[in-house]
Amino acid sequence: MQRRQAIKSLSGMAGASALSWLPTQAMSAGLTDTSIVLGQSAPFSGAAEQLGLQFYLGAQLHFDEVNQKGGVNGRQIDLKRLDDGYEPDRCVANTRQFIADDVFALFGYIGTPTSVKALPLATEAKIPFFAPFTGAQSLREPFNRYAVHVRASYFDETAAIVRQITSVGIKKIAVFHQNDAYGQAGLEGVQRALKPLNLEPVAVDTVERNSTDVGKSLGSIMAQRPDAIVQISSYKSCAAFIRQARQAGFSGNFYNVSFVGTQALLDELGTEARGVVVSQVMPFPYSQATPISGEYLAAVKAKNGTVPNYSGIEGFVAAKVFVEAVRRAGRALTRDSFLGAVESMSKLNLGGFPLDFGPNKHMGSRFVELTLLTQDGRVRR
Question: Whole-prediction pTM value?
Fold first, then answer.
């Protein structure tokens, strides 16, 4: 009896020893021989729901195409999603759930206030935090190997906006921003771009996240009679501000960064969208201006009920970059080899959209262009 127990004990020890030689990824719930599971916390309800939904749909277009062809190195990609309503506390709870579920990577988180809470959790768990839909510098500096950014930063976007505004002689610039980490990141970008010109905003005021109560900020900003207003908020509050400012007689220009959600802002404003400028960090999604745009539009066409938009193509591009890194990492995929594959993607041309990653460079693009919204619901480059 004692001999049988001893043999059983030794057998268990041998099994544990053998398992210790296996890559921990092989035992991960998020990585099996046939699947890669990703987790996305995003607003799928509330004032920013279109941002989360359209990014998810865009990513899913490419993942579906890849899965229908057998996956990547024999693995299907499964994107799980949880609704955080664009609220940091809910995002933290979702992220902890994904970590407990041992997903392979966190993918396509939406927004700065949520991402700044999630990234430390991902870093502690050593899980890649891939392609967050935010341009905040605080997520880029200091360098974090687990954070991978596909888009340009808000500093890049606001620099382009300020350059455009001041090139036509406008100096009286106001900033309307969301009262959180996202709004502060955009405000800092505007201030940073104005400083070399010996300028500063003539007025700054805020709106609370997920609110359209803009009356106080409207009065404060209008009192300083600006010629242009830079908006750093989500589409519902920006639309409310624009609409009320026009009703109050403001005839100046409005400028928004890409996170506003171009199509969502168009839908909110209708004919009042005329003359509103939005900076973009992705290829033009409404025509085959580049090969990647054409590929995205073909995928949209093949999926009934989907319409092209900038949030969608950002998800599509993020998915393509993710798939390329998985492909390069090969069959013996681990989180570490995945990040190494990302770092190998220098001078990557993604169908007319160049990306450049490296061992200490996890921001792939600095591309920015300005677009103009029209009263008939179009976006002009």
Answer: 0.91
